[in-house]
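Q: What does the assembly look like in three dimensions?
Context provided by user:
Components: four
Sequences:
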Amino acid sequence: MVRTVDPDKHAAKRRAILDAAAGCFARDGFEKTSTADICRAAGISSGSLFHYFPSKRAVFVGIFEADTAENEELLATAVEMADPWEGVLAVVARMTSAIVLPGVVRLILEAAAQAARDPEFNELIRSNDDLMRVGLAGLVERGIHTGRFSPMLSSADAGNWIVALVDALLSRASLDPDLDVEHEQAVLRQLLTRILGPSE
Amino acid sequence: MVRTVDPDKHAAKRRAILDAAAGCFARDGFEKTSTADICRAAGISSGSLFHYFPSKRAVFVGIFEADTAENEELLATAVEMADPWEGVLAVVARMTSAIVLPGVVRLILEAAAQAARDPEFNELIRSNDDLMRVGLAGLVERGIHTGRFSPMLSSADAGNWIVALVDALLSRASLDPDLDVEHEQAVLRQLLTRILGPSE
DNA sequence: TCATAAACCGAGCGCGCGGTCTAATATTGG
DNA sequence: CCAATATTAGACCGCGCGCTCGGTTTATGA
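A: Here is the predicted structure of the complete assembly.
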């Protein structure tokens, strides 16, 4: 062979394209974003785009594949924390931190809409979701065993509804840009307290 | 004048088109639904479609304009109920009843995605949402005054988060078709109980 | 240096889209 | 039955789309 590919450079370029595309998808939605838009945003030609990705859909999917690793990492650090209550709060804080990035929230909305119609993509999104749900359930479970929590729900239900509450906050933030984010986060924390019943 | 229009027939046809279009939008999303699809579903030609609506977007918007009246009616009947707790439960039951109609849930998702990108449409969706939120807050307020509720949140916050919880349940149902709906509804009711603290 | 594969470009293809237009037909009041 | 208007049909248009393809440039190992 006379030339080997540098996998790092390749991956870096892929990620650059994904980042540029994410901005487009967030602004205009999947269907209204043209491949030409992505090329412009990424500063490449259509030939290059389709050199890195087989289709527009693959670009969209790629964005969320990258998320999986990030979420795993987030959960791992939360699990390592001494206090499960702090762990839950950290996860929730991180999940809700996207509120101030309207683009991210729109992407999530767009993903939900696409997942409703694309079974394969649905599976990806759901696996990300499951990760958070079972991860949180695990945290809750641990808290129960150590006596830190006395929740009103089973650990599984608690995990599910914590994620649900976060999702609800995000989607409302996207609908209502004047939302008092700090206040709603405080209310969310109250609700979490009520659900998990952490001891003082 | 030599000919008057029959407004009832006109409105009926409009509604028929809206119903047909709603099915298309739910199945394929706004962008992927072509005007030809709508025509086929409604059994009309494109000439007729654009006689009743100026654009594809107007068809989409029309679907949700019809919802407003429905929601007002729902709230009105809830307010008339003697027990505010029953009123809240009735509203929540009605809002969550859409779970078993996957099409409706998908439409809601699609609307959320569109509203993120279309300020005028956003206003419509948000006004529907506000209606429910202040309506529920009013119910809670009444319950507080009559001593029926002793909520952990202000009536406004309670209204907001009740709607948020319902939204969360709907969007999760769309992601996970195997969801145990009855169970989640029961959990939702537990949460409501905890939030509102209805006296026995 | 030079052969070779990776990376990249951008013109262009075929297609399906939202919407228009003209003409034909149905429906009404007089 | 006529005049006037509402309703309908469907061929049609221009545009922008996702993606392909042939060719050029760039980087690298021998």
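Follow-up: Residues 1-5, 10, 13, 44-48, 51-52 of chain A lie near DNA strand C (CB under 10 Å from a C1').
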